[in-house]
TrEMBL record:
GO terms for biological process: regulation of DNA-templated transcription. This is DNA-binding response regulator. Residues 2-116 form the Response regulatory domain. Keywords: DNA-binding, Phosphoprotein, Transcription, Transcription regulation, Two-component regulatory system. The modification 4-aspartylphosphate is found at D51. The lineage of its organism: Bacteria, Pseudomonadati, Pseudomonadota, Alphaproteobacteria, Hyphomicrobiales. It comes from Labrys okinawensis. One of its GO terms (cellular component) is protein-DNA complex. GO terms for molecular function: phosphorelay response regulator activity; transcription cis-regulatory region binding.
Amino acid sequence: MRILVAEDERAIVDDIRRSLEAQQYIVVTVFDGEEALFAGENEHFDLVILDLGLPKLDGLTVLRRWRLARRGMPVLILTARDDWRDKVDGMDSGADDYLTKPFRMEELLARVRALVRRASGQSSPVLSNGVLELDTRQRAVSFHGSPVQVTPLEYRLLAYLLHNAGTVMSQSQITESIYDQDVEHDSNALEVVVARLRRKLDNGVIETRRGQGYLIPAESA
């Protein structure tokens, strides 16, 4: 899952980045509203953490422009403002959740997990298709009830496909969400990761749709 963090306080950005990356999210950071607007309009993100008090262009303006451009990614607002009117303005502008500074990182991570689940129609922090389970809180994977050791990249791939269970996801969609764009990777890197997971799980867990992409079935016997 790829997350944009738009925040001008460097210390907060560093804390959020470390915490999100420890949860196996791909994190992109920007420090002013103009950068945030451009990134949100031109790149794919599964979620955005957006500060209202950004320089150059305030967060509410950025959010309104995203929504006018029909950018539908979930947005979690961060702000030092605690007036209820600010919260109403944020929600009416298209925010999906609201967190007031100072905050505990555990609460931010819980809200991120909830927003990602909600965006993909999931209700439980444990993603499952009947035989494969992924606990988003513990970052643990099991198959037919037995734990499976996976690498961070393998975890991100399984999480992305399970969040979109039953839907064919193209290689470009998957690559955008599980790889850090600053890190180069071979053109067949995704196929290698899929092959490793099939050896650890079962050949039928991740299905290939030739010319379309990959999917994990919503339910498996």
